[in-house]
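Illustration: D-alanyl-D-alanine carboxypeptidase.
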Amino acid sequence: MKGFAKKFMLVMSVFILTLPIFTSEATAATFTQPELELNASAGMIFDENTGQIVYSKNPAEKLAIGSITKIVTLYLVTKAIKDGKISESDLVTPTQEEADMTQDNELANVRLDADKSYSVKDLYNAAWIVSSNSAAMMLAGKVAGTQAKFVKMMRKTVKNWGIKDAELYNASGLNNSDLKTDMYIGPTDGENKLSANDIGVIVKHVLDQYPEILKTTSQTKLSFPIDNEIKTYDTLNFLLKGQRDYQEGFEFDGLKTGTTEQAGESFVGTLPLDNTRLVTIVLDAQGEDNDNDKRFRSTQKLVHYVKDNFERKEVIQKDKNIKINNKKYKTYEPVYVWLPKNSNIADLRYTISSDDLGFTAIHNKQTVKLIATNTNSGYLPFKKADVRKKIHKETNQKSWWDQIVEFFNHLF
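Result:
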């Protein structure tokens, strides 16, 4: 019995000594954030440079996205152009089905003829500025050969960006029921769906890699060849300067509208503000059916909410040390965080980032990414597209946990 008591006391001693391994420091309370009633099924506003989310509503809910799909489609077209696989001057001829779709006012707004060819550049502009569905599908066919192959490219791309459960069935964003069978994959009534988190990750990748896209999305007019003349079409983004929902001081320069019966009226916008760039996401804006501006008013509500209630503060200066778990990390550059006005920056807490977001610091000559842990809405679930899996070499050396388990196995 005495021997058992000795062993029991030894076990309890080891357990008590290992407690610090399993516990963590208490998480600091998040900052008090002003409330916002956003008239949409889901929404978000985040800092494109840092990935910090300033506000979100139902960010993980998968919803139909309509032509917001084209952000992924046109990213892949842009990539194909930059990689030299296709050229802006290449000519593309629509199939009869693609041309026929442009005669339906419910599905298109730029006429395309099956006996004519169009430059990649003209189709690219039409897909961005006025959301031409047939133009997007023609470009998808040019890049991948078939619509099905292109959709598989889309799926692979977003999966590589960490989005594992995207529902992507076609390149345009229409419901599959509006398309011919060779224009989509998946169920006959399938519709593309993503969450606000997903869209945020996608937009950050797209703008990080190809910020020049904004030169196209900021255009208020599309000039397109029709019947041997150039016809002018108006942008669908009514927040651009000179458009009916524009507000001075909020200089939107992108990005994409989305509309289907299932998706409702949605919009992804972007604008420079306070020496950074904000991205807004409004999915399924709520309001009267005949109100064609509700998604833009909801977007304005987001940016006014940030402007009125938050400050982009310099919270750490360059070459300053941060202490995390008794380790010192030195910053490379000034660190900025969006915080509610009158917040005390001394209340911020930091940790090592689990993805590629955050600010760069150095510890023991190694660079790491750090983030603030107690901002109210956190950061995008973002990772680099080129991250490679680490290959762990086999080793005969046992871990500390294996050694503890082995100790207990041999104790009694």
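Reading the tokens back as a structure: The longest strand covers residues 264-273.
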